[in-house]
Amino acid sequence: MVHRAHQKQMAYTVRKVAAMSGVSVRTLHFYDETGLLKPACVGANGYRYYEEAQLLRLQQILFYRELGFELKEIKRILGKKNFEVAAALRSHRKVLEQNITRTGQLLETIDRTIRHLKGDAKMKSEELFVGFNVAAGEARFGEKIKLGGKSPHDCKVSGKDTGGAMCVFEFTGRSSGPKHLHKAQDEWIYVVDGVLDFEIGEKRLRIKSGESVFVPRTVPHAWACLETDEAKVINVYQPALAMEEFFREVGKFDGKPAVHEALGFEGVLALFRKYGMEVVGPPMIGEWKVDQGKIVRLK
To answer: Within 10 A of 94 (CB to CB), how many other CB atoms are there?
Structure first.
């Protein structure tokens, strides 16, 4: 009989772990370099190898990322001497159960509204909004996303609420990122606070608080705060398509490294294409160049 302690564990290369988890090889390398997730060993060939303990730690990292924690905080939590995987999993389950409860309330509201519209059962007006209100500073479904690790990007109306007709976000930050276009979406931007400079096609515009701009699909555009430190805007996309998934994916990068550093030039292009967009130029803030497949900010 072979004792468990003497059994040889299965070892996985970084590419295998990336394929299993959906975490890019670049990101796994970054986790290693920052000490967040070290491999079990490094072979004579220089390859990183991961065993079950590392896979469980990666699972915890992904759970905490989904719950909105920044990498620095995740590293601190996982580094505690009294950290227990089972206890952490129970905590994650509790949060997810709360989300399921809220989803259940929304489903019940949908069903009751359908019955109301069909004339089968009347609803009070206030019952139309059970489980749906989104408080100030909160996001739809309680999902907190930060772009670049610090800029809050809250979904206020989900495509799930509108049958895919549109989605609405509240964003606070300095820039829309690279100049891009949406192949099959119109975009409306309302400035809640701040001053934005826009490039829309060949036009340059300055939009202030209380003003808005409409960007038709296929029109290249970008905006940036050139006069103020940051701005708060309401973004509406019509139809919703997969914008929520796009921002979730971008939000996985906490700025260390930034998404363009982690993915490289081709990776950024591929990311935008995946969600129905095309990158057609650099951001309006700073000067940029592509060097050996990486996007580098000059100043």
So the answer is: 9
Pick the CATH number of 9-78 from 3.30.2420.10, 1.20.1250.20, 1.10.1660.10, 3.20.20.60: 1.10.1660.10
Q: Which tens digits make up the pLDDT trace of 150-190?
A: 778 899 888 887 878 889 999 998 888 899 999 999 999 99
107 pLDDT higher than 80: no
What is the DSSP secondary-structure string of 84-97?
-HHHHHHHHHHHHH
List the alpha helices (DSSP H) in the chain: 14-21, 25-34, 52-66, 71-78, 85-117, 243-251, 259-274
Q: What is the pTM of this model?
A: 0.55
Within 8 A by CB and 6+ apart from 135, the residues are: none
Instruction: Tell me the chain's radius of gyration from C-alpha atoms.
Output: 22
Per CATH, which fold does 140-297 belong to?
Jelly Rolls (2.60.120)
Nearest Cα to Cα of residue 225 among 272, 176, 154, 180: 176
